Amino acid sequence: MHVSFGVLGAVAAWDEERQPLALRGPRHRAVLARLIVARRRVVPVARLVEGLWEEPPRDATGTVRTFVAALRRAVEPDRPPRAPARLLVTEGPGYALRAGAGDVDAWRFEQAVGAVLDGTPPAAAVGVLGEALDLWRGPAYADFAEAPWARTERGRLAQLRLQAVELRAEARLALGAPGQAVAELDAHVGEHPWREEGWRLLALALYRSGRQGDALAVLRRARALLQEQLGVDPGPRLRRLEEDVLRQAEHLDPDAAGSAAQVWTGAASAYESHVAPRARIQLESSVGLLRDLAVTGGGGLVAARRHRLAAVAAAEELGDPELTARVIGRYDVPALWTRSDDPEQSRRLVAAAERTLRRLPVDGGTAAARCRLLATIAVESRGLLPPLRSPEPPSSVARPDGGSGNAGSSRPLQAARQAEASARELGDAALLLFALNGTFMQSFQRTGLAPRRDAVGAEIVELSARHDLPRYEVLGHLVRVQARAALADLAGADRHAAAADGLAARHDLPLVAVFTTWYRALRTAMTQPADAARAAYREAARTLEGAGMPGLAEGLPPLALLSVDVLHGTEPSVGLDAEWGPYEPWVRPLLLAELGRFDEARAALRAAPAPPRDLLTEALWCVLGRAALLVGDRTWMRRAHTHLAPAVDEHAGAGSGLLTFGPVERQLAELSGELRQTGVG
Questions:
Q1: The whole model's pTM is what?
Q2: Which CATH number does the domain housing residue 37 bear?
């Protein structure tokens, strides 16, 4: 029997004839829901117990096994006695639901939205999204609205549903049906007035329906609401639309847009007619298109990453190292975040760049190509510096450029230095900017290097402005936002955030708003009460939906809320069941300690790896230091003190431009005081 599951509404299961299956009581459904949230991963029995009871009964583990047995009878009624389960399986310390990708309504919904973000034509997108939205029978996991383990997933799916409504409206606008979009969007912004994209699309739909006055009224209503209720100004896209409506910009006219589309179609057709298949110029031109596609964000960024790797593989197949070097090096998309969105792809790109370097002639005019390969290695190796484990402060062996003795042998750091030196010698501004991006990505040899990164950002801003390279100018401003925030210079960070937003509006760079919105949430956390900070972070989390940057998004929203709790000294507003992503090993000891589970916290602290050297290094050392203080672990107190000491003048984590755990100086004082009392240090 084939079984499908539903969580877009009350939790349910159906057979192949869409007849509901009996799932027994609410805790049976809770177990099923918890397994669906885990997305085919194993959920330990202990975690199931935590989610089912505030005060577990004496035989909680046995009761959970009873629930699982009943669920198996419901969803696998044809399984012979004593035959192993194939759907609800036992594995290791717990259970997993091995449902297919199309067997859970939430997963089907996500796939549909992802397909549209990846470039489904508007006519098909309207149908695909309509079917996807019809899957919703009510709020996600409706019968577990208060369950902490469901909170993050409920919120994520709810936001994805709102995005789907907006994507369908956008597709209708592309099809020349603004009237249909107006009716849907009017209700949409009424129910969700904080959705700037909803307001933008509604205003655009009104304008294209010949209602310019109504469009302006909607934009002004959105501005007033955002300012009065949230204390923020509209984002760059909303501001730019208001300006365009006032001047009746030609690009708002769908007929003009249609003409532009015809020009594109004609040019693409001519290109395909005159360029031979698999020709070298075709590969190089493709990478140029992918470079432009990447800065659009969302599905465009995801598609650009995927096709980039294919282009490199195709170039290598041709056996021409100089062509391969050009294909690899031409993708000089500015990179700001220090954790890769696709680590496996990054490893393969670095390997391809290294192979090409070995095959490329040293002479014969290949210096620029070699420089681009080295810069690629430095950028794509982001976050790969080995963790610092020395018991001595790394600053004691610091080089003038911020490096350290044991870090100098790092291949990515070496590549960054070689690329920068080569680019300066060649005198190529664009090449130097690419190399400086690699320098920035490898500027985490120790903590406390915000001033060094500020200097790199300043050079990027000056050089790119002088040579009219706006994408790198944006990068430079965002690097300086991070650095100035780390040094608590909010006025300086504000100026650079505003400059980045202005450039993004002029050059259609939507991903910039993700970083500037998160910076403003950080600013709120540093200057306003905890409740205002949490509201700002919840709003900022929406910018991550569909942005195509999992390396940034995974685990960030709960980490930001935890930072508010620590900064303001409030009770934890997030728990162990949140989707912590890669940050789980470092936050787990602190959360366990906050719950009074000190033995577990000590064990988790002993098992925690040293934090990676990246934009959140200081933040994670701060988290570990706080956990060590709570459980009295002097070894980890000393380690945290050692690694935080060089950052004494910074805010822990603010160098990310996203969040802060407060002044490092305050954390060091607490650690020093405890270490002195215990006679250690």
A1: 0.64
A2: 1.10.10.10
